Amino acid sequence: YMPIINTQIHQLPQKVQNQIADLFVTSRQNPSQAIPVLQNLINRYSQIPQIYNFITTAYSLLDDYETAERYALESCKIHPDYLFAKINCAEICLRKDEYYKVPIIFDHKMYLQLLYPERDEFHLTEAVGFNGVCGIYYGKMGDRLSAAPYYQTLKKLSPESHMAKQLKVLLF
Q1: Which residue in 63, 108, 118, 164 is a FRET match for 35, CA 20 to 30 A apart?
Q2: Which residues contact 92 (CB under 8 A, 6 or more apart)?
Q3: How is the chain classified by DSSP, letter by letter?
Q4: What is the pLDDT of residues 25-77, one digit of tens each?
Q5: Are the CB atoms for 59 and 28 separated by under 8 Å?
């Protein structure tokens, strides 16, 4: 799996690039510390979709799902082709039992290669997030046959991820 490369980030000052890289970890390990920094970065660099992903994650980890949802939906509007924006919005739909919206978010393309035919490789976190959300969608729809391949992929890629564990519970 290849690292996620974003040419927009590489156009920013090096100090800001380093700050964004650090916020990947900080938003997960110390979300309350990361949020003010992320809000400031969104005000200055709203064209960088990763910042929205990090702040959505941070608010989710603090159980502030209302604010996380606001940032996730904003990200989907501003960055409609960004995979993590789609994944975050799909997770919200699953949490709210609005299952029918999940295929619409992914343009009815429930495989990464169909959704992004121009790409040959995906980062591990992209593959885990996408396969997790699709598998959970099928699991909640009661379609175990369709959910099973996503679970098998998750077992190979990240068996300890929360998505793999959640899908395992749905299937077994």
Answers
A1: 164
A2: 69, 72, 73
A3: -PPP--HHHHTS-HHHHHHHHHHHHHHHH-HHHHHHHHHHHHHH-TT-HHHHHHHHHHHHHTT-HHHHHHHHHHHHHH-TT-HHHHHHHHHHHHHTT-TTHHHHHTTT--SHHHH-TT-S---HHHHHHHHHHHHHHHHHTT-HHHHHHHHHHHHHH-TTSHHHHHHHHHH-
A4: 999 999 999 999 999 999 999 999 999 999 999 999 999 999 999 999 999 99
A5: no
